Amino acid sequence: MDQSAREIIEREFENLREKLLDLTMRNQLLNFRPRSRTVEVVNHDPEYIYSYLVLNQKKMKLAPRIEEEETLDSEEDAPSSEDTPSDELEGPAEGIPLEENLMEVEDENILQTALTEAELQRRLFYINQRARTMIQEQGYNILYLALGFLEWRTEGEPDIRRAPLVLVPVSLERRRAGSSFSLRWDGSEIITNMSLQARLREEGVELPEFSMPSSPGGVSAYLKRVEGAVSSMEGWGVTDEVQLGFFSFTKFLMYMDLDPSSYPNWDEIVDRPLLKALFSIEIDDDSEEVDIDSIPYRDLYHVVDADSSQIAVIEDVKAGKNLVVEGPPGTGKSQTIVNLIAELMASGKTVLFVSEKMAALEVVKSRLDSIGLGRFCLELHSHKARKKDVLNELEATLMEAEADRPEAEREFRRIEKLRDELNEYRRALHEPLYSIQLSPFQLFGMKERAEKYFKGELPFVRIPSPETITPDEWDEALVELRNLAKLAELLPPLQENPWSGTDPGMMLPSDVRELEILLESIMKTADRLTASLKEFQERYGFMRVKTPAELRGLAEVVSVVAESRPFDLGVLESSIWDRYRADAFTLLDKLESYTRKREILDRFHESVHGVDLEALLRDYLKESSSRIKFLSGRYRKIRNEIDALYVGRAPENDYEVVEDLENLMDVMSLREELERYSGVAERFFGPMWNPENPPLEDLRATAEWIVRFRDLHSDGMISERTLECISRGLDGEKLLSDFEDIMEIYNELEDKLSRLQKGINTHAHVLFNSMPEDVPFRAWRSRVKAWSEALNLLPLWSQYLEKKRLCMKTRGAAFIPIIESGIIRMDDIRPAMEGNLADALLERAFREIPTLYTFIGDLHEAKIREFRELDSRIIELNRKRLIHQLNSNMPTVFGGAAPNSEESILSGEFTRKRGHMPLRKLLKLAGGTVKRIKPCFMMSPLSIAQYLDPRSSQLQFDVVIFDEASQVKPEDALGAFLRARTAVVMGDTNQLPPTSFFDQMISAEEDSEDEATAADIES
């Protein structure tokens, strides 16, 4: 340690030490003043009282003065002690000689007082209450019977002060409420008035030590020695006055205990990390955190239940760390202390447990007693530290039968396996996952809260790549989506918002006005188009047009109808053209063929129609094929018949004759067929059909027009009105002109709509879910009208879209649809996002982490139950293991101890009947052996100073544990810290600080408390 750090420690140490020193005249040990909480004994000398109380260890009764019988009722009318001046308490009542007011001493155990019965009982009740409270709260006795007083004064001051010389620690007893009190020596050591001793040194006087004489004359001898020591001091003297009152050596004892010169190893103590930490000197702490789940169970000695935080504290202390453990009542501090003491003793370490309050110490001690470990703890909390009691307890511990070592390996192996399995699931459940760094446990909580918020109907959103989302990205998305949802609440629902499907960008007031003008113009143009179409349709009978596609279809119809000529209405309406139009063109083909070949008929007589031309041609072909046909009469006969059919001379060549006959047969067949289908042909063409003089070109053109017309008719574009117009004859040019006017209006409308769509960045298929040519004119008109009426929403809609674009860039883009659909509102954003993110990440985690996927709740609960049962079993085994270990480490005190060894000294004290050495001396001489018997000392800050000699290296401890540290003043705690290498300070910063109530009890200041009432005394 560098010199500056050492100087800081020693300076601060001395500052705290000085706070313990009280050599002022407020100290009753220096300046005794009789008060309402003191009682003077007037009939016995100190020698007799010491002999009776201490040497004979008998009780003495406190008796009132002799006077006429009084009842308690009359006493209540007398002035109370509160109303009595303090100087009146120093002697008998006025006007009554002391000798005449004293009871003749008939009983040797009577301590005569100068107080009335009522006043004596009131005072003793009050004193007893306060003394018991002090023991209960602080753990030590401050009620003493002072034997002999030194009258002294400082030079230059006339006031005489009185200081007690021999202080016998006593206690008050009574058999029942309302009965008289008796006085008993409490068995504690009787020591010198050290405060007076220190104060007199300032005056150059050395007060002799008092060493508990074992003979009746010891007190008188001591008083004479004091008288001799002060004989040179003018005005000083010794009296045999006896007073019962409150005195305390605590602060002075602790002050003396903190004298650095009393510690042979002071340099080493100052250099300890503990002291550096106490005085805020920076020290290097390179110790690692202990993984409590990796500790083998055989290395743990928990003797009561402990949670993970308590185990962590214990393991840190075992690792040599200095700790401050904070926790309010009910957080298991006493449990932790019990386990910590057990673990340290199991590690072979010694423990100094310190508590200012007796109650806190008794809580820990009773817990240790209940599990069989209390006998390894030495309780030295002041009034508990009676020599004989301590020796009896040490001897009883040594005599305890040694228990067998319990076997626990099987339990250790099983519980470690269960621990590993449970921890594996716990780690899987609590390990932060993915970029968002949330554990499955947290995700389950998020999902459950979301499901509860939405009452089991959480809107589902599929989040893309949820595992890559970071906390910052998620927070950004949450903020932007909430902003978007807030704007959405100011707009109509998306399905009702006329601007849905548009993206106008920034809209300034001038932009809105320009748009308003365009919308008005479009509505007017649309109205003109509607009116023109209506008039056109009524005039020509065309079916009503609703869409641009239908308008283009009408253009084709108009072009066809414009080419029409007057027709028979029946032909136009005939459905034969729909079913048999191919037959019409077949008839036309036959008619053309007949017309082309019909000239052959002019070369033959009409009689040819009655001849079987097919048979004639067959016979002729047969006969004409012979080379000697000229010799055949049959040939000549057939030839003559053929020649007769010709109007003129028949061809000489047989081949020409055959060709003529074949052509004749073909024409005659066509003619017969045309005659046979003449009725059908008339249905197709009406009066235009004339096979003998047909207008072939007109017929074919008509057929083609009718086909086109009938197709249009079947599409529903033509009405009966149109047919009538055509049958009467239609002005095609007028029709085309009228339609061109309509198309001009349509083109104007189309141009304006195109400008509008571009201006607000939309398209027909977005607005109407249709192709532009299929959007009805009326739909456009309605939408434009809605836009015109909602122009005030357009700037807000523009802002909404800008926010939406920001949201689209975040990891929350998938939630936009359910915001726009109105499924969730702004307040629903967080639970909706958290629920869906948790769901998505848990789904992924279950796929990737087998421990989660294979988790079975019932099996897990069974493991937990088995773990708890084993843990309880192991706690029981740990108690037995530790008891066995501590018993095995007991020193050999009875028999075989080396002369003058600690064991020999202790054995001698066990066998001694009386005259035992003081505890401080015993611990100084045999402290090491006592610590082996009882590795844990349980003390108060006072008892440490009183019984642990700092000059003994055997009275150093490995660990000091402070309980309820907030109740201990820093200067009171120093003695404990000097006696240990490691400290554990446990307490509650919210607890009230130490009170000065008990300091006031031993102060020489005037009383401020109320005395006990008569009702108190009788209770």
Automatic annotation (TrEMBL):
<keyword id="KW-0175">Coiled coil</keyword>
<dbReference type="InterPro" id="IPR027417">
    <property type="entry name" value="P-loop_NTPase"/>
</dbReference>
<dbReference type="Pfam" id="PF13195">
    <property type="entry name" value="DUF4011"/>
</dbReference>
<protein>
    <submittedName>
        <fullName>DUF4011 domain-containing protein</fullName>
    </submittedName>
</protein>
<dbReference type="InterPro" id="IPR045055">
    <property type="entry name" value="DNA2/NAM7-like"/>
</dbReference>
<dbReference type="InterPro" id="IPR001763">
    <property type="entry name" value="Rhodanese-like_dom"/>
</dbReference>
<feature type="region of interest" description="Disordered">
    <location>
        <begin position="67"/>
        <end position="93"/>
    </location>
</feature>
<dbReference type="InterPro" id="IPR041677">
    <property type="entry name" value="DNA2/NAM7_AAA_11"/>
</dbReference>
<dbReference type="Pfam" id="PF13086">
    <property type="entry name" value="AAA_11"/>
</dbReference>
<dbReference type="InterPro" id="IPR025103">
    <property type="entry name" value="DUF4011"/>
</dbReference>
<feature type="compositionally biased region" description="Acidic residues">
    <location>
        <begin position="67"/>
        <end position="91"/>
    </location>
</feature>
<feature type="domain" description="Rhodanese">
    <location>
        <begin position="129"/>
        <end position="161"/>
    </location>
</feature>
<dbReference type="GO" id="GO:0004386">
    <property type="term" value="F:helicase activity"/>
</dbReference>
<feature type="coiled-coil region">
    <location>
        <begin position="384"/>
        <end position="428"/>
    </location>
</feature>
